[in-house]
């Protein structure tokens, strides 16, 4: 399931602070885009606005035939948008009162109205893909950070979303678990899932992304293929940032 | 000083025991109704539903800010003068009504606190997969808030049982009312009220044991 995605004029203020300033961005089906930039420049807010976890003040989000205008988005628009976008949280945010399998099934049975059996079969298939076939009955509290984040990704995968949003998926992980989570994301990226990922893992971004977007001060400063951004950035801010993290 | 008339006390036990069911009936019915009402009030407060939220805040403030006895008298003696259909309600109904509203006000605040105690990320995760407000409350938030609220709610239930004794001021012959009548006949006030006090104490102790068991049980289910 894939469609063209476009974001135009997205603006978000917290009080007098403009966190996102007129952001416009398009993704073609199957495109994998990584957002990089200094902390506090609105990268996470951009992802959260695309899922309406933060409500943008202005701007239009279009997924195929669905258009959501921030200035007149109804509750139904917001639900429709959320049902077509998967979100992977930095802190996993698994449902603490549900097992790993139930975490994955929840969106299918409750939101999509699938039968329990069908959802269970799908969840077991996903558990196998995320390498946790034997941990389906475990509660989040019994899983390692890496396992929890893989379930978090599995929960987003189950939705078969037009767009998967990953908000610094490895930032909260102990170093020992980063590899397994990146491996999983790499496999999903290889499956040409359209995705927008905010990450501090520059090497990883370079490897999996078709395009790198560099943000600073709530704006998109520069974007292009990885070799261009990492090898021959045009803007001085991009070069300064890459020197710092590089 | 005189010795306690223990024989009289033993004779009173079966008499008062006969009223335990009525006391428990009032407590349980009021508790169930108060729980449902409190959950609704708490959700209105948490979601800050415009206008209704303000009304609920005033309701809670009034029922926490005035004595239960005054509220019971208002319902039983006062309201019938305003609303004629209320003259038909008996003491038991008025007591259940008053206990329900009074305790719902208190319990709404603890349920609200418990809901706010559930991590913000749980709301966001549920929203992110497209759950409606009702679905996320029912399936994710309330199940996690319940074990947080349970010990406090259990304390309110214990308080509720003791508060049913006020129903005797509305002419209801429950445990306290029955004891009062017995004592008025025998003049053995000390013995009579001692026995009824022991009755309440035993009931509450039995419930406390149940409460500790429940806390251990619930504690296991949501171990983080």
Automatic annotation (TrEMBL), chain A:
Q: What keywords were assigned to this record? A: ATP-binding, Nucleotide-binding, Transport
Q: Identify the stretch annotated as signal peptide in this record.
A: none
Q: Where does this protein come from, organism-wise?
A: Paracoccus caeni
**Protein name in UniProt:** Amino acid ABC transporter ATP-binding protein
Write out the similarity annotation.
Belongs to the ABC transporter superfamily.
Give any GO molecular function from the UniProt entry. Answer: ABC-type amino acid transporter activity
Family annotation (Pfam families)? ABC_tran (PF00005)
- Fetch the InterPro entries from UniProt: AAA+_ATPase, ABC_ATPase_HisP-typ, ABC_transporter-like_ATP-bd, ABC_transporter-like_CS, MetN_ABC_transporter-like, P-loop_NTPase
Where on the tree of life does the source sit, at the highest rank?
Bacteria
**What residue stretches are annotated with the ABC transporter domain?**
5-242
Automatic annotation (TrEMBL), chain B:
Cellular component, GO, one term: ATP-binding cassette (ABC) transporter complex
Give the bilayer topology.
Multi-pass membrane protein
Task: Report the residue ranges that make up the ABC transmembrane type-1 domain in this protein.
Answer: 20-208
UniProt keyword Manganese present: no
Where it sits in the cell: the answer is: Cell inner membrane; Cell membrane
The molecular function GO annotations come to:
L-cystine transmembrane transporter activity
**Where do transmembrane segments lie in this chain?**
20-44, 56-77, 83-106, 183-203
What are the UniProt keywords, alphabetically? Amino-acid transport, Cell membrane, Membrane, Transmembrane, Transmembrane helix, Transport
UniProt KW Glycosyltransferase keyword: no
In the record, the note on similarity to other proteins reads: Belongs to the binding-protein-dependent transport system permease family. HisMQ subfamily.
Q: What is this protein called?
A: Amino acid ABC transporter permease
According to its UniProt entry, this protein's organism is Paracoccus caeni
């Amino acid at each position: 399931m894939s469609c063209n995605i476009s974001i135009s004029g997205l603006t978000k203020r917290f009080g007098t602070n403009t966190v996102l300033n007129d952001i416009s961005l398009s993704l073609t089906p199957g495109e994998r885009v990584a957002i990089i930039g200094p902390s506090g420049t609105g990268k996470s807010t951009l992802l959260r606005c695309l899922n309406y976890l933060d409500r943008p003040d202005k701007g239009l989000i279009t997924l195929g035939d669905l258009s959501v205008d921030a200035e007149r988005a109804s509750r139904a628009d917001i639900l429709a948008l959320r049902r077509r976008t998967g979100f992977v949280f930095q802190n996993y945010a698994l449902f603490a009162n549900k097992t790993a399998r139930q975490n994955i099934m929840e969106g299918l049975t409750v939101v999509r109205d699938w039968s329990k059996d069908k959802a269970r079969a799908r969840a077991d298939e996903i558990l196998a893909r995320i390498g946790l076939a034997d941990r389906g009955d475990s509660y989040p509290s019994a899983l390692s950070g890496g396992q929890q984040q893989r379930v978090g990704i599995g929960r987003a995968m189950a939705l078969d979303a037009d767009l998967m949003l990953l908000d610094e998926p490895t930032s909260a992980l102990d170093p020992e678990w980063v590899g397994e989570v990146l491996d999983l994301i790499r496999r999903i990226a290889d499956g040409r899932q359209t995705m927008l990922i905010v990450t501090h893992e520059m090497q990883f971004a370079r490897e999996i992304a078709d395009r790198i977007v560099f943000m600073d001060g709530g704006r998109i400063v520069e974007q292009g293929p990885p070799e261009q951004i990492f090898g021959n950035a045009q803007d001085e801010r991009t070069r300064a940032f890459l020197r710092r993290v590089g | 000083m005189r010795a306690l008339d223990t024989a009289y006390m033993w004779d009173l036990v079966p008499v008062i025991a006969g009223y335990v069911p009525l006391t428990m009936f009032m407590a349980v019915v009021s508790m169930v109704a108060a729980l449902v009402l409190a959950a609704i009030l708490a959700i209105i407060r948490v979601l800050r539903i415009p206008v209704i939220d303000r009304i609920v805040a005033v309701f809670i403030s009034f029922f926490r800010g005035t004595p239960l006895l005054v509220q019971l008298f208002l319902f039983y003696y006062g309201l019938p003068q305003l609303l004629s259909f209320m003259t038909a309600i008996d003491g038991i109904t008025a007591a259940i009504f008053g206990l329900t509203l009074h305790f719902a006000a208190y319990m709404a605040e603890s349920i609200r606190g418990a809901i706010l105690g559930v991590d913000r990320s749980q709301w966001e995760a549920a929203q992110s997969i497209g759950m409606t407000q009702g679905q996320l409350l029912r399936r994710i938030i309330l199940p996690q808030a319940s074990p947080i609220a349970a010990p406090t709610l259990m304390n309110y239930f214990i308080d509720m049982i003791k508060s049913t004794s006020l129903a005797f001021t509305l002419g209801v012959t429950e445990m306290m009312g029955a004891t009062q009548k017995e004592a008025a006949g025998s003049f053995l006030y000390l013995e009579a009220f001692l026995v009824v006090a022991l009755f309440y104490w035993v009931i509450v102790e039995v419930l406390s044991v149940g409460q500790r068991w429940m806390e251990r049980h619930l504690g296991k289910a949501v171990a983080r």
